Amino acid sequence: MGDLSPNFSRRELADRHTGELLADVSHLVHHLERLRSICADRPLEIVSGWRSAATNRKVGGALLSQHLYGRAADIPSGYATVAQANEAGFIGIGESTGWAVHVDVRHGPPARWSY
Ligand SMILES: [Zn+2]
After folding, report:
1. Which of 6, 9, 23, 51 could lock onto 67 through a cystine, CB 3.0 to 4.6 A?
2. Is 69 helix (H, G, I), strand (E, B) or coil?
């Protein structure tokens, strides 16, 4: 049970270093729920959700990373394919060997890239 949605909690989406969550992640979480449902409701671990500017610098995130705006989540490789992430409505998808490992709900044209 989550306190943001049926399956996701604030703690899971919060900054890994400060524990803070200072962005509206409701749109992101809506699509994470869709992805989880597409993936047969398997538990979905969030590797990285919202990041403060300091944390984003520390982990070498992009200057205008979607993580800064609460619009991105990194998920484990092997959970969802790029096609499944696309079906869940994510606009930005970063993939590693065919698996979606970064998903975001950016405002703008679709983006796809590999790590
Ligand atoms: Zn990411």
Report:
1. 51
2. helix
At 34-52, the pLDDT tens digits run: 999 999 999 999 999 999 9
Whole-model pTM?
A: 0.96
Whole-number Å distance between alpha carbons of 85 and 75: 11
Residue 2 alpha carbon to ligand 1 centre in Å: 21
| Segment 52-109, tens digit of pLDDT | 999 999 999 999 999 999 999 999 999 999 999 999 999 999 999 999 999 999 999 9
Distance CA 60, CA 62 (A): 7
What's the 98 CA to ligand 1 centre distance in angstroms?
16
